[in-house]
## 1
Amino acid sequence: MRRSEGLALAFLIVFSIVSFLPPWRELEVAGMAVFGWLMAALMLVSPALMLLVFRRGGKR
Amino acid sequence: MIERVLVLLYLAGCVGIGIYASRRVLSSGDEYWVAGRRIGTAVNAMAIMASLASGGSIIGVMGLAYSRGIPATLALFAGAVVGFPLASLLVARPLRNFGRYTITDFLAWRYPSPIVRLLVPVSIVVAFTVYIVAQLKAAGITATALLGISYEWALVIATVVFITYVSIGGMIAITWTDVLQGLLMLIVVVGTAVAVTWRSGTPFELMREATAAAPELGSLAGQDVSSTLGFFVIWATAIPVIPHIVMRVFTARDARGARLALNLAMVAYSVMILAAVLAIVPVGKLGFPGLEDADQVFLRVMASEFPAVVRGVAVAAVLAAVMSTTDALLLACSSALTHDLLGGFFKWRLSERRLALLRVASAWVVGALALYWALSPPALISRFYTAGVGLLSAGLFVPTIAGLWWKRANRAGGVGALVAGVAVYGLTMTGTVELGGAPIVLALIASALAMLLGGLLARPDAPGTLAAVAALHDEAGP
């Protein structure tokens, strides 16, 4: 596994763990718990990040 | 009337694709199971998206968000989306380079044991039959609500159509129909979301208005952490090993194409799920508070907001979602029965002609069983099939990942991890044993412990096996 792939994997794991921390369950933005917004962000960020990593890897 | 004509046209198109594909695929296992391994990246991405986007992803996601709130629902679907990067990093290249047909092929090669040859395909057939039942329910309630035909007739028609094109057209028919179905789903769901949001102002205004009227929609109150975490973990760990997605990896031209396709598929899938949950569900909650069957929310929004033509396209889109997943599940079940069980475990050696007949017959048997069960379906389809997927994740995740990435993984560890994962998940999920915590987390911990013990205490694998596993990770393949 390349270093950039390892870093991307670590980022996704940390993002996921942080999203499940208790404070985000109570805080709300626009009527929805921040946890929900973090999950929505994760859905967009994770495939986009991997595409960037693989695209860079493919160019080498 | 116009709705029925549109749906009939769509169904006829699917059968036509199956008949056309059958000319190429029935004479070869490679063509039938993995489309000759020459599916391009963009086509594969759309097919992967359609395979994952089931009736649960249209009917079920909105039903779940309506009844349990948006944050908990997004945890489930975000888990699936995170599973794809994991799959592309951890399994796509080595499994594509492995170059066989099924996840059972890999596990039985890595951990040669009759237990693996038997337990893996049996788990796949059990879990996917449950999954197919959930999909059929979505097809039935959609056709009943928007076309006015009986639930039973809707099930029979949808089932006969998808079994026909899967059984005779194999992976090629599935890929072509999935591309058509994926495009249809994206257009209908995203188009509906844009239309209803346009009428209500901005998405944030819509969300504020809906959560002011129904605060539970945006809240996690009453949701315990273990169940939210359980949903997330089930899907994140299932995607890298779930057979109908893994078979898509085998169809790719090369490992890089497989990796790109997995992530491109998730971009489209995320856009569709977020459009459904953040726009259509709030409109449904405002317009139809207190629905008894939450799975009806999308259909009620469509029926109230759009004319007959759009409703016809929406029915076709839901059927597309159902069929695009069910066809892949059916092919995976069929391969588990014929290739893994009869060919691998019972060692049947048949001529290519008899094998072709057996593939067709097995698809019809599984489809008929699922149809019979779906005539009296369970409530809340997302929860139901998630339990089936959890069983596969519990049993297959640790053996697959460790088998590819841990040099100490060996036969004792692999078999132990498989049995421990399936047993602990089954016992805790059914409530036979109460340990506290999410069943999937407990099952994965038990599976990992079994792998660790087997790997550290039992005899290591032969150096030749380890060298072959290492070769799977090479960019050019072994």
## 2
Amino acid sequence: MEMPTPDASILARKPQIVARLEAVLPPGAVISDPMETRAYECDGLTAYRCQPLAAVLPASTEEVAAVLRICHEERVPVVPRGSGTSLAGGAMPTADSVILGVARLNAVLETSYDDRYIRVQTGRTNLSVTGAVEADGFFYAPDPSSQLACAIAGNIGMNSGGAHCLKYGVTTNNLLGVTMVMMDGEVVELGGAHLDAAGYDLLGVVCGSEGQLGVVTEATLRILPRPEGARPIMLGFDSNEVAGACVADIIRAGVLPVAIEFMDRPCIRACEAFVHAGYPDVEALLIVEVEGSEEEIASQLARIRTIAERHSPSELRESESAEQSALIWKGRKAAFGAMGQINDYMCLDGTIPVSALPMVLRRIEELSAQYGLEVANVFHAGDGNMHPLILFNANVPGELEKCEALGADILCLCVEAGGCLTGEHGVGVEKRDLMSVQFSPVDLSAQMDVKDVFDPGWLLNPAKVFPLAASEARRAS
Amino acid sequence: MRPGTEQELAEAVRDARGPLCISGGGTRQGLGNPVTGELLSVAGLSGITLYDPGALTLVAQAGTPLAEVEAALAAEGQMLPFEPMDHRAVLGTSGTPTAGGMVACNVSGPRRIQAGACRDSLIGIRFVNGGGEVVRNGGRVMKNVTGYDLVKLLAGSHGTLGVLTEVAFKVLPRPETCLALRIDGLDDAGAVAAMTVALGSPCEANGLVHLSGPAETWMRLEGFADALKVRAGKLAALLSARCGVSAEIIEAEPARAAFEGFRDLAWAAGQPGDLWRVSVAPSAGPALAARLRAAGAGEIVFDWGGGLVWALAPEGTDLRPALAGPGHATLVRAGPETRRALGAFQPEAPAIAAISQALRARFDPRGILNPGRMG
């Protein structure tokens, strides 16, 4: 992975920079010993590592502002970091950068059930937001699979999704407002407990900007009353095409499940071997979940069953109890862990139009054979967000590179099918150089214009999102 | 000018010598600050580019009549989730609302409280920037975090950052039917309290409107017919237990007609005076309404469970000081003089205004796209 050459003058000034940061933060909030900064050398994309200059852990918006003011004056790049779970290298350091971790910003600031929002500091984990309101019958809808660990800050940076987006949308649809510190230390408020923007929807462009426009320290999040119940049905098919057609028919029939998950045979087998969820050995498995009152669940599942039966499923298992529901979900939720048991794997994240599903799966199979690397597919079928998992052996020289080349081919295939490079993980460093496959120079230029406005010095989260060649002139000026 | 293709439109912008006044069907032309310039009509870019019902996606050229989009969706039992209002009656305009005009103004309706705004369903755009270049952002898939989300930035930018040429939506299945609960005689605080109970329950009420005089509070439920009756019964019981109110159940047809009227502000159409639209946290709605009345407002209607407050006021009255807290007040209908004097949009904090100004300067360096529309 090509990264910009570290600024030697910054590396040389490390003692002064660290001293300035220590002067504005409490003891222990500045980490500069290389033994300790090692913890920040990578995120969930562990294939790439780089020691940062230092890491800071501010505990308030004011402390974040103080850090950014210093880094702005010293022209030091800053890499904002939530919990470091990014699969795209969104929090990967450069050697001349300061990691700004929000882990200590973890308080719930305000909860309003009347206005259905919660205001939190952004270091709080996704699942703990729901944890703070579930006793009162509410929940926070976006549920990325890393939700136990991932921070709201990272969710906002990457506009994270999850399994239930079909009904509830992604982070941007559930984010009402933020407190954000600009690179020069100025604190701005966007949105709040009210809906929509007074002028331009700056909140909308900040969400998903991968920490490159500002550091979000507080967030107002929409919370929703928890549905009375939810229940899945499991459908097995002899071909991916038929499963894909069944998904489209369910959607066209006017039923709006909260989740439609798809697993192919390699994935089913791996999960079954790992957690024994009782999955049938079929070509394609769908898990369709509906929610509502007991009567509504029954009526929706009956409709889905009727549609599915038209496609002659080889397996049709409707959950009849909480235990059965848990078992149906068990394999799906263990999918990544199951893969990790077998091999090293790379998880992709392209989105395709649902109607292109059979074609894309067929082409992935061909590419897999061509490269000689197995690919297992598990994904959110309702919204077309695919997660092909490429299995490889990192100890075999050249296999990581081969895996990356296959991954790039699959993502280009997603774009060719009318989709995109990333549905919920973000671009980070991982897909940075593929951006020109999806976007023209003019398209990228318009996005970089926004970056210029918010962070004219290009100091925030360097070397992410935009191909280095495309951003070179702007970074230099 | 009325270009027939995106390329012609891009050339028209590139070759423009002065300010352009961008128009779709012209039905929302009165929104925002007055603009003078040569008319650039997008109406020539018309037609549905792609409709994939199985993928819940529709893409249309910006000048496509909204009616055409809605008819295509209805034929497949689908809809635009955000229930866009038709501004014609309340603004006294004629013509054909277009998909692009709706997006440029981020127009939503009562269902916005549950299903999100226009910007939430918008998944892709093409636009021509002030330099005459064609820019693409987002796409035709509903989960997409590839690059910055300019889709949201352009939605509601009233043509000041670019001329939309194509818009793509995530659509939803059209509910089989609807029902409404109607409660009469509640004051503003009582109505917002009742709507809050509904929104805090799992009943999925998705249209919550309160007319303050004569007082009527409406709550809409949508879904499959068999399930709806049960849900309506549960909500009525909950409202009775928690608020001590009794609700009448309104059948599908009258409920649909009532909400069409609420969506298009039928109560304000033809009424004299300026029309204000104030967005606040729902619990702040009743006190805001009291302050608006003290400042001279006449009829007031609440939508979005109390968080959207519509108010009629005598011409030239500045209701904005009554906001007195977080939120924003937009002058939706007023004469050009009043809009110029008071500003159609809520003034922004200096740091935000500077960002907005800088974005305009980047996207439209010559300042020719609806200049002054948003400040």
